[in-house]
Design brief:
The chain is of the alpha+beta class. Among the domains are: 283 residues, Alpha/Beta hydrolase fold, catalytic domain (Rossmann fold, 3-Layer(aba) Sandwich), CATH 3.40.50.1820; 122 residues, Neuraminidase (6 Propeller), CATH 2.120.10.30. The chain contains twelve helices and 35 strands. This is Peptidase S9 prolyl oligopeptidase catalytic domain-containing protein.
């Protein structure tokens, strides 16, 4: 075994874990309690602050409900029965817009309905077209700005759409390379971000009648991301890593095309979240994530508000999710690593503070497990951050482990409640989450260190985390499994193929098995990013040997651990072929493989009954191969 240099944080974590008295695990919490739909969630205030909207189950699907502040009764205004409402927006004080796809195809259509449930209208009744929100247009009660790939499935044009009639007009036609659109504080479309696959540009225009002109062009490894305009609509606030490793917040001078004031930077992580008060026309603070989420405030009023909320709700992370236009009525949410938390309503004028709902009241956080930040060194000296969840009541000693790599891969795990992590911990497994190289948030150098390293150095980072657990005595080396979704599913397949003696089993959830086939079947609207993906993953012709070396399908002969594969039939990102081909290859060799396909799902299982089926099967699979607890059939 290689020697590991253990950080003080890890030593402290192990001391905490290891010194807990040996106890029994809490009761087996029913699987459905982890994965059922929330009691209510995604609360939002109307612009005037008089009504709440939220998603609540009806017929096992999340539907939009509306409730007047101060009243107990709520009105259901949507009637989805096949699939959850994916999201909603307040169009004005009396009308709500919402989006929904079909069977997981991610071709979201836009609808609108009055808050009493009347005058429902499908605003974009187009086949194989995806709609996105650009701007709700807070000062225009009749219109919204949306993006839509109706004209060309590869690109999204910008439209101003009437939220009652559906009448629309194109505000800007995408020439083929625009990836994002931005408005000023008056709702005028004035900034766009383009990509040719490798180079990115930020474009600007004075008015919607003018032509866009480039402000800055960079290779995609350096970027300047617009956040929003200054309150006089003359300059921009941006998140930028141009000429630096960690992304920081700047003010950008449009006329002179240069960064001016540095608002905030952090020595360890990227900073890209900027808080503002539209009412008071002030920048109020920034948000960033190290081990947990953090704030830094520029504004005393916002700082005082946050402090007051945290004093009212001790022991939880607290953040504001919605405000009325005058910013005097506020919706607050809490969460922790052991709780999905609650929503609260706060009237700052009357000091009325009221709990609205516990999101998952059937879960007792005292029965759940703590998620601890950890660090360790990779074999080539990189500091790798992650999280370790040890089952409540158990010493961190010779435990069965489930390694859970995140998706992306250009994303990161964060501290907080995860249903699957808590489910696994309750069944007796320690859960390791790893922010391997190429995870975002740790700066450009760490991100680029993972380019063309899928199945190689990225996988080594995961392997090194497992070996660290073994060396520390936390993991039972004979009972280690790996489970992940999307890119995490790829890591599962790579783990059982490239380190076949390390894992006792694997669970691949909508994962990639071949870089060649995944690059052939990407959605049409990812086409502008194809060259960038080639540079980050590999080119199917120029890097053929690399992609063959790192695609698990070409190494299926090395896989000997039992595998469970789950796939949505309509997945637009990871085509069903990815799962079909690895399952077929393993079955031909007589390797144990379970295969679950849901015909009404896409990239991950949204419907409640499908989540139940997946995690019930996963629980039995892991119990068989790792020895964890399994809920009795009569309880399920």
């Amino acid at each position: 075994m290689r020697t590991r240099i253990i950080s003080l944080l890890v030593v402290a974590s192990i001391f905490i874990f290891g010194c807990a008295p040996q106890e029994e695990l809490p009761r087996i919490v029913p699987m459905k309690d982890f994965f059922r739909n929330p009691e209510s969630a995604v609360f939002g205030l109307s612009p005037d602050g008089s009504h709440l909207a939220f998603l609540k189950p009806w017929e096992n699907r999340l539907n939009v409900h509306v409730q007047k502040i101060g009243e107990e009764e709520a009105t259901r205004i949507t009637g989805a029965t096949e699939r959850d409402i994916a999201g909603y927006y307040w169009a004005n004080n009396n009308r709500i817009a919402y989006v929904q796809d079909t069977a997981g195809d991610e071709n979201f259509r836009l609808y609108a309905v009055n808050i009493d449930g009347s005058n429902r209208k499908e605003l974009t009744p187009f086949e194989k077209v995806r709609v996105g929100l650009i701007d709700r247009l807070k000062n225009d009660d009749e219109h919204m700005l949306i993006s839509m790939n109706k004209r060309d499935p590869r690109v999204f044009d910008a439209y101003r759409i009437n939220v009652v009639t559906g009448k629309m007009n194109m505000v800007a036609q995408n020439p083929g390379n625009i990836m994002e659109w931005y408005t000023d504080h008056d709702g005028n479309l004035r900034v766009a971000v383009t990509s040719d696959g490798v180079n990115q540009s930020v474009l600007y225009r004075d008015t919607e009648k003018d032509e866009f002109q480039a402000l800055v062009t960079t290779n995609f490894k350096e970027s300047m991301s617009p956040l929003f305009f200054t309150f006089d609509n003359k300059n921009l606030y941006v998140a930028s890593n141009i000429g630096r490793d960690k992304t920081a917040i700047y003010e950008y001078d449009i006329k002179n095309k240069k960064h001016t004031k540095l608002l905030y930077e952090h020595p360890e992580v990227d900073v890209a979240g900027l808080l503002k008060s539209d009412k008071r026309k002030k920048i109020t603070g920034v948000t960033y994530t190290v081990d947990k989420g953090h704030y830094h405030f520029f504004d005393d009023e916002r700082k005082t508000l946050q402090k007051g909320l945290e004093e009212r709700l001790p022991g939880y992370e607290v953040f504001i999710v919605s405000r009325s236009k005058d910013e005097r009525k506020v919706l607050v949410r809490t969460y922790s690593d052991r709780s999905l938390g609650s929503y609260y309503y706060f009237n700052r004028d009357t000091n009325d503070f009221k709990k609205l709902v516990d999101i998952s009241p059937w879960l007792n956080e005292d029965e759940l497990s703590e998620m601890k930040p950890i660090t360790y060194k990779s074999r080539d000296g990189l500091t790798i951050h992650g999280y370790l969840t040890v089952p409540k009541g158990m010493k961190a000693n010779k435990l069965p482990v489930v390694v859970n790599p995140h998706g992306g891969p250009w994303a990161r795990d964060t501290w907080g409640y995860r249903s699957d992590v808590q489910f696994l911990a309750n069944r007796g497994y320690a859960v390791l989450q790893v922010n391997f190289r190429t995870s975002t948030g740790y700066g450009r150098k760490f991100w680029e260190a993972g380019f063309k390293q899928s199945g190689l150095a990225i996988q080594d980072d995961i392997t090194d985390g497992v070996e660290w657990l073994i060396e520390q005595g936390i993991a039972d080396p004979e009972r280690i499994g790996i489970y992940g979704g999307s890119y995490g599913g790829y890591c599962t397949l790579a783990g059982v193929a490239f380190t076949p003696d390390l894992y006792a089993c694997g669970v691949d959830y909508v994962g990639v098995s071949s870089w060649f086939t995944i690059l052939k079947t990407i959605p049409p609207y990812w086409e502008p990013m194809r060259e960038m993906m080639y540079e980050m993953i590999g080119h199917p012709e120029k890097d053929k040997e690399l992609l063959e070396r790192t695609s698990p399908i070409f190494h299926a002969d090395k896989i000997k651990a039992p595998l469970f594969v789950a796939q949505g039939a309509n997945d637009p990102r990871v085509n069903k072929q990815e799962s079909d081909q690895i399952v077929e290859a393993l079955k031909k060799r007589g390797i144990e493989v379970e295969y679950m396909v849901k015909e009404n799902e896409g990239h991950g299982f949204r419907n409640e009954e499908n989540r139940f089926d997946f995690y019930r099967a996963m629980e039995k699979f892991l119990g068989k191969h790792l020895g964890g607890r399994v809920e009795a059939e009569t309880q399920q």
